[in-house]
Amino acid sequence: MRLPRPSPRTRRHPVPPEPSRPDQVRALVAVLDEAVAAQRPADAAVAACGEPGPVSCQTARACSLQSIALHRLRTRLQDLRLTDPDLTRTQDQAARLLSFDLWMLRESLDLAFTVRPDARTEEARQRLNGLGRHADDLRRLRDGLRAEVS
Questions:
Q1: Contact assessment for residue 53 and residue 39, using Cβ atoms and an 8 Å cutoff
Q2: Which of 16, 70, 72, 129 has the highest CB neighbour count under 10 A?
Q3: Which pLDDT does position 115 carry in this prediction?
Q4: Nearest to 136, CA basis, from 92, 100, 87
């Protein structure tokens, strides 16, 4: 006697339920907490690229390590399974802000370790003083979500 084959419409594994909005907010805040904490050393690394005089190899290493950390956090952020439209917009905005931080780290390295230094490049490099307004925007975004959890 043959057992009937399961129809293609029958799912072998049930679909997990969608997380509730509070669970989604908590998950998003957890990643944003780490991202905001990672911005402090990234900010210092960008500022170090703008200091007068030659830029140290330690600064290059710091920028690279911070770039790796922020890239991983942005990936974790984008991998969150959020279903609430407001939270997905917040997720997208946070990812854009982290992308800007990554861009700042890369540009800082490019300016600090240029192959052909000139007066214009040096002037631009010395204006570097950190991540700037976008870092503050990410902090405010996180703080707004954190208030919702409380």
A1: no
A2: 70
A3: 86
A4: 100
Q: What is the pLDDT of residue 14?
A: 72
- Which of 124, 112, 128 has the alpha carbon at shortest distance from 54? 112
Q: Classify residue 39 as exposed, middle or buried by CB count within 10 Å of its CB (0-12, 13-18, 19+).
A: buried
The pLDDT of residue 4 is 66
CA distances from 93 to 22, 24, 63 (A): 19, 16, 23
Predicted confidence at residue 139, as pLDDT, reads 97
- Nearest to 108, CA basis, from 45, 58, 32: 45
Alpha-carbon distance of 67 to 78, in angstroms, equals 16
Inter-axis angle of helices 85-112 and 21-49, to 10 degrees? Answer: 10
